[in-house]
Amino acid sequence: MPFARIVGWMLIAASNAPASGDARFESTASGIGESHPDRYAPPLISNGSLCMLIDGQGCQFQREYGKMTPVIYWAGRRYGPPNDQLIPFGHFEQELSVAGKPCGAPVRWSQTLNTRDAAVECRNEYACGMAVESLVFTPLDHDLIVIRKRVSVETTNTGPVRFVFKYMFTPPGNENRAPRRAIITPGWDDSARSMDARYQVDGHRMYQGLVSVFSDRPVAATHDGQAIALTADIAAQPGRPVDATFCLLFADSMDGPDFLERATRLRERVRQEGVESLVATHRRTWGAYWDESYVRLPDPQIEKAYHTAQYHLRANATKWSFPVAVLNTHWAGRFFGWDEMFCHQALISSNHRNIARRCPEFRFAGLEKAVRRASHYGRMGTYGARYPWETLEDGTEGAPPGYWMEHVFHMSNIALAAWLQYLYTDDLAYLKTTGYPVIRECARFFRAYMIYETPDGGMFLGKCTDLERLGPAKQNPFMTSCGAIFTLEAAERAAALLKSDDEERTAWKSAAAKLRESLPHDGDRYIPYAGCQEESIASLGGLFPYPLFDETHARQRNAVYHFVEHGRASGNMYPVGNSVCAWYAGWMAAALAALGDKVEPAKLMSEAAGGTGCFGELFEINEAKVSMRPWFSTASGNFVFAMNQMLLQCRGDEIRIAAGAPETWTDYAFNLACHGNLVAEVAVEGGRLTKLVLMPGDSAPELKRTLVIPERLLQGQTLNQNIVTAMTARADTRHITVCFAGRSEVVVAGPQ
């Protein structure tokens, strides 16, 4: 039977979703003819498996945008050495003609990324009196791309329209050579009424699979060996547009040898249930993600960048972990233990617990390989684990040789993600089976390989590459040392909770204390390494990414403000540009928020938001003379986490409300995760706290927390005295101890 027809064109809003046209979730670019806005990069759509850029015609015409050409990538499918590149799975285009004459390029176009709906919508107007609207999305639950085209004409004299949807498999450049070859055999499947490209790839492993191309309309199907074309004749009338939907379905042997059967089942399901079912499920699954938390801000530019970053984090979540992007231009979708933690902490602090969990679980899955890398002739247990700098899906190294291979701080970030997952979920079973084994082996690595002893019994960290801009072989670098301290202390705390490894616990605690004593400084502030004459964001490392110090620690505080004042010329990891890149801005904002600064974090976030692309996306660097790598997930992670930290922080049993929010912000609200399987929902209206609700998880025991709230937010408000057990005022804040037992509790509700 044919597709069931979709009802309506726009994605129908669910009852709890924002109204259509919500500026927080929609960004639009437009142009005349083939022109594009300055530094335009196509919007990204992805389900964490299939990933692609979509151009202004709702296609993937082969044009370069900042060294990026739109193609389809499929996470985990890659060629082998020497570069382990992702296999490009082709691209799609369209050809339009009216009354037998090609339409050519549109005379004007507009394109919208709707991050709430995870869809790209385009409108193109042609000189021949025809308009084509496009809707493109990829469902979270399926390796499927849905491309819907709506054709409308101005007059009855426009003539018959011929629409050709073209899918081209051919990999670009010289990648289609032995031994990295892709062998494609297209053919019409009459029983399925689809044109299938069956292929074999001899790459990182042997893949067999197919790409199935089909439509909801009667089409004429042709192929020329590497390209498939589905041609539809459309008789549109003024006021009566005609829709045509085209689908690309992907299935292969990496997910199991039954890929032909899986493809057949999914294709038939799509045909039976229709596109409207796909749309409904797509909205429902993305809606569930958005419903896990929210942030509403008084600054529209920051708010849009925040929501685009949240969209990006989910779109970039593969079934393994979080690469910089599933794009060859972004290190070929390999997994950096360093970068993935920034995505993890953004997700977990936003209450996206199940998505965040993929990161430590991926590291646990690769633990045996990492342990063997550091072991002594196979004898494991003493020397810990050495994770790759750029990890492939099977846990092996994918990085090319270079001094970046001498990084060890990614080991600390791997431990940090594993520990944060426990802190936020309070899941002791997870800690025992997954988190602690990872943290323990990272701690063992630092003790075995990196920590040196002095004759007087002191300890310091050996030579390694700290931040790459500082160069290789730096002894006792500050940030890496902070990471080692954090790892050792987290291992000690986790072991204490689990009542295990008593002897090592003592050694970890002692080593961490001695490393704290050896941190490099100039007497007044911490410095990147002894004798360093350069400015580096590494000097912020004891606040972010590693929460070792608080606002009372003078040397760390002085280091932060020194870099804020003098470090702008060192505001990204490369020696180029003269501004602070977005992921450094998030880094600095998070550190400043931890110090309780209520001015500088918002300035930095505003600067980062001001440098977003046409669709609110963050770049690795985006300046007038240096613009590279849009859809850079590390920046998205830091931006989200920094904003979350400005609104809500957890330190021990303290929950700090609005610790880094500007005093000029009088109206905002959020629902974010706290440590200990707890969520806080907060609203500020007219500069007063009008709502504060603490919501424990279902299995939470009796909880005791100290709420630290700015005094100005509490003026005239009444606290719930049923759960308040103590209250003190200090330094323009009120410290309120609350105690409640496994239920949602309202601390403040409405103005009094």
Q: Proportion of β residues?
A: 25-35%
Low-confidence sequence ranges: 1-20
CATH architecture of the largest domain: Alpha/alpha barrel
Rg calc: 27 Å
**Lateral arrangement of strands in the main beta sheet:** 1-8-9-10-11-18-15-14-13
> How many structural domains in the coordinates?
3
User: Quick one: overall form?
Assistant: globular
CATH topology of the largest domain: Glycosyltransferase
Please identify the top-level CATH class of the largest domain. Mainly Alpha
Q: Fraction of residues in helices?
A: 25-40%
Biggest sheet: strands, sense, closure? Answer: 9 strands, antiparallel
What's this model, at a glance?
This protein is an alpha+beta fold and 752 residues long. The chain has 3 domains: 26-290, Beta-galactosidase, Chain A, domain 5; 298-651, Glycosyltransferase; 668-749, Sandwich (Immunoglobulin-like).
Question: How is this structure best described in words?
Answer:
This protein has 752 residues and is an alpha+beta fold. It has 3 domains: 26-290, Beta-galactosidase, Chain A, domain 5; 298-651, Glycosyltransferase (Alpha/alpha barrel); 668-749, Sandwich (Immunoglobulin-like). It has 16 helices and 34 strands. The protein has a 9-stranded antiparallel sheet with strand order 1-8-9-10-11-18-15-14-13, with helices on one face. A 5-stranded antiparallel sheet has the order 7-6-12-17-16, with no helix packed on it. Strands 19-28-29-30-34 form a 5-stranded antiparallel sheet. A hairpin with a 3-residue loop joins strand 14 (194-202) and strand 15. It is globular and about 85 Å long. It starts with 25 loop residues before the first strand and ends with a strand. Residues 1-20 have low confidence and may be disordered.
